[in-house]
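Table 4 source record.
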Amino acid sequence: MKKTCDDWRRHFPAGKFGAHLFPEFEKRAKAVSAEIFRVKTSVEAADVVLNLARFTNARKVVSVSSPLQEKAGIENVLKSADIEVYSDQGDIATHAATADIGISGVEFGIAETGSVCQDGYAVESRLVSTLPPIHVAFLDSGLIVPGIIEAFEIISQVFDRGYISFITGPSRTADIERVLTIGVHGPSRFIIVAVDGELQGGGEAS
């Protein structure tokens, strides 16, 4: 899968990110209707996704892999529950519009806005995060920056060409008579699975 940057972590400014910022990030994310599950291990993360799939009666999932997802073995966990999982580029293009859940990784969170930053260079990343009604994003809970300024400091070091997305809660619009509607132009549910354990990258301890 193509990415704007293959190693985002080495561009994080020392002392300006960490799990100590997660509570503010969580508060802001929930304020814009994102759902947050913070877990300690990849095993717990897999349980969250499996329970979500069962609760929503999901039968088809499209997934763009990330290190956290691979550690959790998400694809195998879902397949063992007889849920179709598509992760190849061509299969994602074919099935994203009819999938029940899209799963992807994100690079970091922004405490100031409750947003996450996603490397969207690969078209399959954009399809997975916009077409299914539910988008599940895997986040390292230690990779939280204070605000937009720090986010752009990081991006300025890694961006050459491609696409970078800021995702803030589920899709919403008030274009029609100023009535807020959720899920018209994208997912109606945005779920962040924040993992503390295996791939911790925080600048300070929580």
